[in-house]
Write a structure and sequence with these properties.
The complex is a heterodimer of chains A (120) and B (169).
Chain A lengths: L2 H15 L3 H4 L3 H9 L5 H24 L55
Chain B lengths: L3 H9 L1 H11 L4 H16 L11 H25 L7 H7 L2 H5 L4 H10 L3 H12 L4 H8 L3 H19 L5
Classes of the chains: A mainly alpha (120), B mainly alpha (169).
């Protein structure tokens, strides 16, 4: 079959596929008027957005109104020690709060005695 | 606001534009009408402007194609949403009269064969063989290079001929 035959066949097939298009084609006036109306999707997205916002507000309100867990009351004069508190007692718990200083005034090599003693 | 001559030009091309919108939406009449209205709205609002760099028909078809693609993406996204019940009414609308009328006819068989093609193959064949555009004009409508459109054209031709079978002549 030649290329022209193929193309004629495809042309006829496409025409057949479109044969009933006219039956469902809306009038131009209807389509044009539909386009002129305010955005058709606006209200739907508005409803969705409002619903999401309402759910978010409800969640926030519910969380704020939820009762706090009851506090644990210990008998007077007792102290609760957690079973893993010992893990916090590390060997280097005592830390230096200031930089260490040396008392250089008492160093005999820097300040040899004046009474004639030999340091050697 | 669109000038009157623009409206007249669009009106003159309205049946062809709708036929093209049908091809872009795999002959879903409701989706095609939505795409066409969105295209008209884009033109009315000035979001789509004809700059004279191509034929008016080529430009209008490109706008319709873009709107059909946008509609497809929106439908896909809505299908993924948990609040899908909101679009239930729209889904019910989607079965256009074509589907009811044309279940057994030859045109329906051809449309089914066309639906099996890649979208760009289907589009280029529709533009060239039904809307009488050149492959280069079809490329402009589809937003691809002429070379790419030629590849889609040749592959689409071979595939559609194979799908139609020898007895379809």
């Amino acid at each position: 079959m030649s290329s022209e035959d193929d193309e004629a066949r495809l042309r006829a097939a496409l025409a057949e596929a479109h044969r009933r298009d006219a039956e469902v084609t809306p009038s131009f006036a209807r389509a044009w008027r539909g386009a002129r109306t305010p955005s058709r999707r606006g209200p739907r997205w508005l409803v969705l957005s409002a619903a999401v916002a309402a759910v978010a507000v409800a969640l926030v309100v519910w969380r704020n109104q939820a009762p706090a867990p009851p506090g644990i009351s210990l008998p007077a004069g007792t102290q609760w020690v957690g079973p893993t508190d010992f893990l916090l007692q590390t060997p280097d718990l005592i830390t230096l709060r200031t930089a260490p200083t040396l008392d250089l005034g008492s160093d005999p090599y820097l300040h040899p005695p004046t009474d004639g003693r030999d340091l050697r | 606001m669109a000038p009157p001559d623009l409206e007249q030009q669009i009106a003159a091309l309205h049946p062809a534009s709708f036929a093209w919108a049908l091809a872009c939406t795999r002959w879903n009449a409701a989706e095609a009408e939505e795409a066409l209205q969105s295209a008209y709205l884009a033109i009315l609002e000035g979001r789509a402007r004809f700059d004279g760099r191509s034929a008016f028909k080529t430009w209008l078809f490109a706008v319709v194609r873009n709107m059909a693609a946008r509609g497809r993406r929106r439908l896909w996204m809505e299908a993924q949403m948990p609040w899908r019940w909101m679009s239930a009414g729209r889904d019910a609308q989607q079965a256009g009269p074509l589907d009811a009328v044309a279940s057994e006819e030859r045109g329906a068989l051809i449309r089914r064969a066309l639906a099996q093609l890649a979208s760009r193959q289907r589009e280029v064949l529709d533009l060239v063989f039904f809307h009488e555009l050149t492959v280069e004009e079809a490329a402009r409508v589809m937003g691809v290079s002429a070379g790419s459109a030629r590849v889609h054209y040749h592959r689409g031709k071979l595939r559609l001929l194979a799908l139609l079978g020898p007895e379809e002549v």
